[in-house]
UniProtKB/TrEMBL annotation:
UniProt topology in membrane: Multi-pass membrane protein
Organism (species): Ulvibacter litoralis
Keyword field: Cell membrane, Membrane, Transmembrane, Transmembrane helix, Transport
Protein name per Swiss-Prot or TrEMBL: ABC-2 type transport system permease protein
Stored InterPro entries: ABC-2_transporter_component, ABC2_TM, ABC2_TM_bact-type
Highest taxon, organism lineage: Bacteria
Gene Ontology MF annotations: ABC-type transporter activity
Positions of transmembrane segments: 21-40, 171-195, 222-244, 250-273, 285-306, 345-363
Localization terms from the record: Cell membrane
Domain ABC transmembrane type-2: 116-366
Gene Ontology cellular-component annotations: plasma membrane
Similarity annotation: Belongs to the ABC-2 integral membrane protein family.
């Protein structure tokens, strides 16, 4: 019994001595609870919408004011022509456009009915459905308030139109998202254990005395995995195109370029994890738990980032998956080019440079 008790005490010493393990054991449950509590929600809030008001009368202005007063929408743009709708959708920020017909107020009085068109960006079907439902609900509530003193009720008839994904196929959302998650996790896991394996097997000393410079070791660790990750990307895109009829509206060259950039960012992030991890187990757990949850929850893959609390929206900016999902949806579904996606491209490039630079610095520190 004394031996068993001593063995148990020794195990506790091992656990509490490893600070990284303690962070994973006690920190990750807290992070998961916070992420699932704030990020996992089907509600929408602060969604940017635009208005095309052909009537410009008192009734349309009241409706716009009612929409702006809700916590669900922000009217960020007023457009004057239908040709601007696709342009504003391609920028990716506005999720819906509300179109008022000519003579809106006159039609309500003369015909007891007026039409409003709701045009949504359906590259994210769940968000498009929610936006359409919430806007329709606001219009119906306004109609109810308007009819309280009317003997003959007025009707405001919403007409819905979906851009880019009119059938609201959920696969159009899941193929880009799954591709992002797989590339991030596979690339990061493969590279995160690369340097850690060298330390555990005792071959790190060979690298330390070799004539290779730190950046050469880092690049050498990343290079073989690039081809494996590219193969995964090609397989996913082919399955999406041939099996699920996923469109590829944009440039194939730009799609390949952005995919390679994202793969490099994931591989570089994996190398960074491996340089600061002592064991393969720690590196793998950090890759799985530290990357999987943020990639799924905070990238905009399933849940809209605009509906999350401001701190989580800020944190999402440092997640490479967020920027790649914007890029791949823009290329596949909207057919936009680098003139629209240049900012997201530069963000990925900056992340690659930052991750590789930090990896080299950590590697140099271990050499000293």
């Amino acid at each position: 019994m004394k031996r068993f008790r001593g063995f148990v005490i020794k195990e506790f010493y091992h656990i509490f001595r490893d600070k990284r393990t303690l962070i994973i054991l006690f920190g990750m449950p807290v992070v998961q609870i916070l992420l699932f509590g704030f990020a996992v929600t089907n509600e929408i809030s602060n969604v940017d919408i635009a208005v095309l008001d052909r009537s410009k009368d008192s009734e349309t202005q009241k409706i716009i004011n009612t929409i702006e007063a809700s916590k669900y929408f922000k009217v960020t743009d007023f457009i004057v022509d239908e040709k601007q709708i696709e342009t504003i959708f391609k920028k990716g920020k506005v999720k819906a456009v509300l179109v008022f017909e000519n003579n809106f107020s006159k039609d309500i009085v003369a015909k007891n009915m007026a039409n409003v068109q709701i045009i949504t960006d359906a590259t994210e079907p769940n968000v498009a459905n929610s936006v359409n439902t919430y806007l329709t609900s606001i219009l119906q509530q306004y109609q109810t308030d308007l009819n309280q003193r009317q003997q003959i009720p007025y009707q405001i008839v919403p007409q819905t139109r979906m851009y880019y994904n009119p059938e609201l196929k959920s696969v159009f959302m899941f193929v880009p998202g799954i591709m992002t998650v797989i590339l991030m996790l596979v690339s990061a896991i493969m590279t995160s254990i690369s340097i850690t394996r060298e330390k555990e097997l005792g071959t790190m000393e060979i690298l330390l005395v070799s004539p290779l410079k730190p950046y050469q070791v880092i690049v050498g660790k990343v290079f073989p995995y690039v081809f494996l990750a590219i193969s995964n990307a090609i397989i996913i895109l082919m399955l999406g195109f041939f099996v699920f009829k996923m469109p590829i509206e944009g440039s194939y060259f730009l799609l390949a370029l952005e995919t390679v950039l994202f793969i490099f960012s994931a591989l570089a992030l994996g190398i960074l994890i491996s340089t600061i991890s002592e064991t393969q187990q720690t590196a793998m757990m950090a890759s799985l738990m530290g990357l999987m949850l943020p990639t799924i929850l905070l990238s905009g893959f399933i849940f809209p980032i605009s509906s999350m609390p401001l701190p989580l929206q800020v944190i999402s900016n440092i997640i490479p998956a967020k920027w790649f999902i914007i890029l791949i949806k823009g290329i596949l579904l909207k057919g936009v080019g680098l003139e629209v996606l240049w900012k997201e491209t530069l963000v990925l490039v900056a992340m690659i440079v930052a991750f590789i630079g930090l990896s080299v610095m950590k590697y140099k520190t271990r050499l000293e």
